[in-house]
Design brief:
Order of helices and strands: EHHHHHHEHEHEHEEHH
Number of helices: 11
CATH superfamily of the largest domain: HAD superfamily/HAD-like
Oligomer: single chain
Distance between the termini: 13 Å
CATH class of the largest domain: Alpha Beta
Structural class: alpha/beta
CATH architecture of the largest domain: 3-Layer(aba) Sandwich
Largest sheet: 6 strands, parallel
Radius of gyration: 19 Å
C-alpha cells in the first residue's frame, strides 16, 4: 500500500510555536486592558482547549466575574484574538518560531518521492502563512496541495472534521495517508478520520496520553540531531524518512 500523502498539524508539529502564542496572548490582553497573564504551566493546561478564541472563552469561564464584566469581555474575544494574531505573526516573522528538527528534510524527501503534502490545523491561515514563509521563503504555501485551517470546519480537534475535509480535498482514502501530530487532541482527530498517525510531542504536550499513536518519536530526526536509543530502531540512519513511514504504514495495514 503506497503512501500518497503526509498531512501535518502546524502548532507544535511543524514548529514549536506555543511559546510565541503564549507571549502574544499576554501582550494582547495588556493591549485590551486585561490583567491576565498566562504562565507556562497554565498555558499548557489551556492547550487542552483547541482554538485561540475558544481558549480565551474557556479561561474566561474560570474567572467567576460579575455578569456585566463577563459579557463585556466575551464581546471582545474576537478583537482580542485578532490583536493576538497580529502580534504572533510579528514574532514569527522575527524568527522566533523555527521549524522543528527534521521537518524541512522530510518535506524535501516527500517532494522528491512524489508524496503529496497537506496541512490540517486549528490555527488560522494567516498564522500558517507567517510561519511557513518566514522559515521556508516565498512560495512556501505552494508546497502544500491542501491547507485545512481552523475556521474551515465547525468543530475543532479532537473532532476529526478538519482531517476529513483535507482528505476530501485531496480525493484520497485515509488508508493511503499519514498524519503527523504533537498533541492528544490532534491524535484523536487524526485517528477519528482513520489515519495512521505519527506523534512527535513538544514541550507543551509531552505529558499527554499517546497510547493510541501508531508511531511515537521525540522528533523526526536529522543528520545533526539523529534519533537515539529505541527511537533510532524505528528509523533508518536514525531519522524518519519516507521509506520508513511507508514501511510502518504497510505493516500496520497488514496487521489490521
Amino acid at each position: 500500500m503506497r503512501l500518497q500523502a503526509l498531512i501535518f498539524d502546524v502548532d507544535g508539529t511543524l514548529a514549536d510555536t506555543e511559546e510565541a502564542h503564549r507571549r502574544a496572548f499576554n501582550a494582547a490582553f495588556r493591549e485590551h486592558g486585561l490583567d491576565w497573564n498566562w504562565s507556562k504551566p497554565e498555558y499548557a493546561e489551556l492547550l487542552l482547549t483547541t482554538g485561540g478564541k475558544e481558549r480565551i472563552a474557556a479561561y474566561l469561564r474560570t474567572r467567576a466575574l460579575a455578569p456585566e464584566k463577563d459579557l463585556a469581555i466575551r464581546e471582545q474575544i474576537a478583537a482580542i484574538h485578532k490583536t493576538k494574531t497580529a502580534l504572533y505573526a510579528a514574532m514569527v516573522t522575527n524568527g522566533e518560531a523555527p521549524l522543528r528538527d527534521g521537518v524541512v528534510r522530510l518535506l524535501d524527501e516527500a517532494r522528491t518521492a512524489g508524496v503529496r503534502l497537506a496541512i490540517a490545523t486549528t490555527t488560522t491561515f494567516d498564522n500558517i502563512r507567517a510561519l511557513l514563509e518566514t522559515n521556508l521563503g516565498k512560495g512556501a504555501l505552494e508546497r502544500f496541495e491542501v491547507i485545512g485551517a481552523g475556521d474551515q470546519v465547525a468543530l475543532k480537534k479532537p473532532s476529526p472534521d478538519i482531517y476529513r475535509l483535507v482528505l476530501q480535498r485531496l480525493e484520497l482514502p485515509a488508508a493511503n495517508c499519514v498524519a503527523i501530530e504533537d498533541s492528544a487532541n490532534g491524535l484523536a482527530a487524526a485517528k477519528g478520520a482513520g489515519l495512521f498517525t505519527i506523534v512527535t510531542p513538544s514541550y507543551w504536550t509531552q505529558g499527554e496520553d499517546f497510547t493510541a499513536a501508531d508511531l511515537l518519536l521525540p522528533t523526526l530526526g536529522s543528520a545533526t540531531r539523529p534519533l537515539v536509543h529505541r527511537a533510532a530502531m524505528l528509523a533508518r540512519n536514525s531519522v524518519l524518512g519516507i521509506q520508513e513511514i511507508e514501511a510502518h504504514l504497510m505493516s500496520a495495514r497488514m496487521c489490521a
